[in-house]
Amino acid sequence: MPNFSVNVPQLSSLYSTKTPKVRMNLCADQVFDKMLLWRDMSTKMKFPSFSAAELPDLRKSNKRRGSLRMIKCRAAGADGGRVAVGDDVFSVTTSSKYEVDYLGQSTKGDLNLKLDPLQSFGDGQATLEGPIEEVARTEAQAAENLIRELGIQGPFSAQHSPRGIFCSRTLNLRSISAIGYDMDYTLMHYNVMAWEGKAYDYCMENLKSMGFPVDGLAFDPELVIRGLMIDKEKGNLVKADRFGYVKRAMHGTKMLSNKAVSEIYGRELVDLRNQSRWEFLNTFFSVSEALAYAQMVDRLDDGFISADLGTLDYKGLYKAVAKALFRAHVEGQLKSEIMSKPELFVEPDPELPLALLDQKEAGKKLLLITNSDYHYTDKMMKHSFNKFLPNDMDWRDLFDMVIVSARKPEFFQMSHPLYEVVTGEGLMRPCFKAETGGLYSGGSAQMIESSLNVHGDEILYVGDHIYTDVSVSKVHLRWRTALICRELEEEYMALIGSRGHREELIELINQKEVVGDLFNQLRLALQRRSKGRPAQTLAATNLDDQELTETMQKLLIVMQRLDDKIGLMLETDGELFNKRWGFLSRAGLWDKSHLMRQIEKYADIYTSRVSNFLNYTPFMYFRSQEQSLAHDSPLPDAGIEN
């Protein structure tokens, strides 16, 4: 590998700007990760190299202050002229020599210094000596400033944005050898109104041919969101919290009151294992199905469905809708129309191919594993990728292996016959072993692991379907997982827009709690007084009867008015995202939705689109955040009394 050489000024002496200490560690990681990326790119691109004589001019042009002492690397010339960044300085931890770090992550893929860490640094040695806390504080601050000078987006600015990558379980990308991608709604993002609207139209045509009344119905994606569940026994769509308690429900297309929800679901939990009753809306593909079902429930309740179709209950109605939509997908008319005019259905993302290119050049083996057939995959990938790739690359050049018609989730659980696609027309022949660079149909995940000699947590799989992509690959194979949830961008902005509303709501709830606590204490005092017993305190015991009663009356009026206000505000909470269902990730003011619980359980990281990886590096170390607990409230300054 050719050396990428650049004189590196001593970080601690370059900058004096004060920055918040809390942001330092990740910024140092980001600088190091960018250096790794630059090193790997040096085989294809030339970067400028600055000599020691040129550095004062560089410093002056950038208005830098302080001395510019050089880091002298023994392996690249001790005269201070250049510092080599390459195989003579660093070694990569292999899969046979990895260890496990303090967060339980594999160190495979980490760089190590071949040289003595201190002896290799000449004049800079002094700054690396001393307590590590002081060294880290100085160098991390300098690293953050260097990020700013280089114009690199820091990890904090990327994370705290609608297009951040959010971490549920710590993930070291350096230890990942292969990254697999789903295609539909992962590498390929469709215009929901166009794609699902067209799927809905075909579904309605099929329902009409079956004898169902569909006249006057129209596609309205605002009626449903991802993460809802269809209750096939009762004809309802419901939204549950992380424990499975139903928080909102809709019968047909009519929202149910809180009282009705409590009466129907107050004594039961949503259990997704009961597939005969519950259908989880995992992905955007579920939108057209759920909408058509809700509208047909209305027609059934209104008596518009002909008796000629037989006796239909809500479960039988769901089977009819699912069959009509399945026909729309299987018969090929839907995909044929999309292939003829892909620009009407696909939202282009110029950054996406570049994100995958970074990963490939960093040594990751890239896989495409999709349930779509070869002709559809090739047509849509060419449309979405080729025009954004450099040097006349084809989308196939990005991937070490492509699997079409994969039949997920069975692909992750069992083995199917493997066929190699051998012509541009899609002709196939039986195959017994997959090879790097091949294009195949069918097969299994175990076959991929064997062919590429990568296994388990060395593979990251990225998809949009909680079950088909993320849950099954993690549970059965222990692959690392990433979920694509495009709605995150809209929800992120809706949460920001709702901040004032939620702050006011929380303030009212806190006031209700204070008023309610006093009311409850007075009620207890009144109860004890009626039984001839003293109240909690002497002052409460001596309280005048009339004063006690009037105070309780006043407090009760205040609480009732607060309840009316809070109830109305809770109903409108989240309406910036969806007026009926509220936020995607939340159920009520305080709790997470059932969908969010699934994401946290099965997806190590999640984000809105694959191109968000471009804001990070292929060497990023994603660290999960501290999880709050009910007893995490700040303790008082004084000692705790026993």
Automatic annotation (TrEMBL):
InterPro entries: HAD-like_sf, HAD-SF_hydro_IG_5-nucl, HAD_sf. One of its GO terms (molecular function) is hydrolase activity. It holds the Pfam family 5_nucleotid. Keywords: Hydrolase, Magnesium, Metal-binding. Belongs to the 5'(3')-deoxyribonucleotidase family. NCBIfam families: HAD-IG-Ncltidse. This is 5'-nucleotidase domain-containing protein 4. It comes from Arabidopsis thaliana.
